[in-house]
Queue: 2 jobs
Job 1
Amino acid sequence: MSADGFTRMSIYGINLDLFSSSPIVILKVEGENRYLPIWIGQAEARSILMKLQNQEFSRPLTHDLAASLVSELGGSMERITVTELKDSTFFATIHLQIDGRAVEVDSRPSDAIAIAVRTGAAIFAADDVIEEAAVEFQDQEALEEAPEDEVVDKFKDWMNRVSPEDFK
């Protein structure tokens, strides 16, 4: 656990839940083998993936527009936090600096992550959310020594067995 109640995360990837055909963004606890799967919408998954793969549309997407608005108004996006898990729904907050003052904006995690990848903002999750919903692979040593494609295959196998109800 961290001192301030939040742990830094990184985007591990986006996968598809075969049962519901819903995309899942997978956040990884930095320096650990714990992963936080968050079911998201198709549009948000596409937006995150496009930016991660350095693809651009000829016109800005909604998340591009939000990042541009903050920047043009003299603000900066400091970080996003996945703050809560309630009734199988994740909640997030976008932390901005505008004219020297801290501003917090309620958000869906998928939108916050999509904007964070555009602005380079750090991603954090509340320690209690990680404790409640993160998945840990038991054989971390074997996982670290395995080729990357085997790690992805193991994670996909797990993803094929898990459902949103497993996180209630």
Note: Residues 148-161 form the longest helix (14 residues).
Job 2
Amino acid sequence: MHNYSVTEFILFGLTQDPEKQKAIFGVFLILYLMTLIGNFLIVMTIKMSQTLGSPMYFFLFYLSFADACFSTTTAPRLIIDALSQKKIITYNECMTQVFAAHFFGCMEIFVLILMAIDRYVAICKPLRYTTIMSQRICGILVILAWVGSCIHSSAQIFLALRLPFCGPNVIDHYFCDLQPLLKLACMDTYVINLLVVSNSGAICMVSFTLLLISYIFILYSLRNHSVEGRRKALSTCTSHFIVVVIFFGPCIFIYTRPPTTFPIDKMVSVFYTIGTPLLNPLIYTLRNAEVKIAMKKLWCGKV
């Protein structure tokens, strides 16, 4: 159980160089604000638009919400710490950050799977689409995603709470996660690391494999479609696939390996905790004509 000889941790951050820290503050503040604005615009556009009522946009609403929350679990702390002399985080705040990061990260994974299922049914089972992807079923699927995320993050926090800390207390990272915490624990963490890999690593690998299989089925079924139908389906699926690759690539790199750390780990983590939530709204708006038209109609009219 938790050893109270360590009641707070010091986050090392991305760098200790004062000049680089000022640059980090400016760059990541801009990126974080862009992330919040981009995802807020998508959430509000889908909520208020009459034309974006299909299941795809229902799931996109929750993806943008999860993106904004996921970025908020790590970015504000990184931005504030860039100007702080001592990057102190209490034990309770650290455990809360572990739970929140895994909850919203897992939520994003499950919503991406739901979006892939929606595209598969729309392209491969078009005549039964409205029956299979009814509003009630979509609601149930989102609830299951929330429950699954809660189970995953509860398992992670259970493992984190089992770790005894008796010093040192410097976390070589910019946020609390199980891998850097395992290095500080006053115990043999081999078994706990196996559990982390079998939990987070398995979710990443299995989800990524399922998504790849679904896109293979979609591409195979497109051979029977018209040229216009094929072009539209490929456009939608390409944007989804780009999101899947840029999110799952770093996650698989971080969570599916033995307890070793590399200098590049922190930059890889930046990519999926801050980069992906920023890129998602850009990808879905720039590559989606319906969202762009709805945004122009809604927001230009209000302005």
Note: The chain has a mean pLDDT of 86.
